[in-house]
Write a structure and sequence with these properties.
228 residues, phosphorelay sensor kinase activity, elongated, transferase, Rossmann fold, alpha/beta
Length: 228
């Protein structure tokens, strides 16, 4: 299904493979697409034909389709029985849909693992040199500890940037702000990561995409009052 978006000069592509982190990547892409008011595409590639998928693969595909409808994704793309190199396939899809940003996951358990290695990225950059890449780290299978996901934390400030919109800054602002620590995700040139701060002796964590808070509902109500 096609959905009308405000911007047509931006488009985001999320590449997913089977595993629990696929939904997380899709939701991350959805937040970014909402902020940019641009189309979001979901891509999964498999060397086997769809009719040969086992129950587990089929379950993931169905869930991603449901999620795509729920989040009003522009298009869920599944390329099965695909024998071409993955970078070639991603590049072809990116060019067809005028993609400007690509999100991929970093995981040791999936076929997308190679995406995080320099040789693959170099090939992919040659295929689609016109896009920005977001490499999102995910959890190891069977553990609750993530990979090294963030750079060393730096001091930052949370400031209000309009109605229910908040952003982070790195110099002390003259207007009201909340001081905290920003942890930037490894592998991105943007201010993507998490912002942690303490308020009334309780620790809070906010997701940050391109310098803006994507989940302002997680800011405590009393903290929002100080921005009024």
């Amino acid at each position: 299904m096609k959905y009308v978006k405000g911007r047509i000069d931006e488009a985001i592509l999320v590449c997913v493979y089977y595993g629990a982190n696929g939904e997380r990547l899709i939701r991350r892409g959805h937040k970014m697409a909402l902020m940019a008011d641009c189309p979001l595409y979901i891509l999964t590639v498999d060397p086997s034909p769809v009719d040969a998928f086992d129950e587990e693969k089929s379950r993931y595909i169905e869930r991603w389709k449901e999620l795509s409808e729920e989040l009003q994704v522009e298009e869920f793309i599944i390329l099965d029985n695909e024998k071409r190199p993955t970078p070639k396939v991603i590049g072809e899809v990116a060019k067809k849909h005028n993609i400007t940003q690509i999100i991929v996951g970093q995981s040791a358990q999936t076929r997308w693992e190679e995406i995080t290695k320099g040789s693959f990225i170099n090939v992919l950059l040659r295929e689609v040199p016109f896009v920005d890449f977001h490499i999102v780290s995910v959890q190891r299978p069977g553990t609750h500890e993530p990979f090294e996901r963030f750079e060393k934390g730096v001091h930052a400030y949370l400031v209000k940037n309009g109605d229910e919109q908040y952003k982070i800054g790195f110099t002390c602002p003259k207007h009201t702000s909340i001081e905290g620590i920003f942890f930037k995700e490894i592998g991105t040139d943007f201010d993507n990561g998490i912002f942690k701060f303490t308020f009334e002796e309780k620790m809070y964590e906010l997701d940050i995409a391109e310098g803006s808070v994507t989940d302002p509902e997680n800011i405590p109500a009393k903290a929002k009052i100080i921005f009024a």
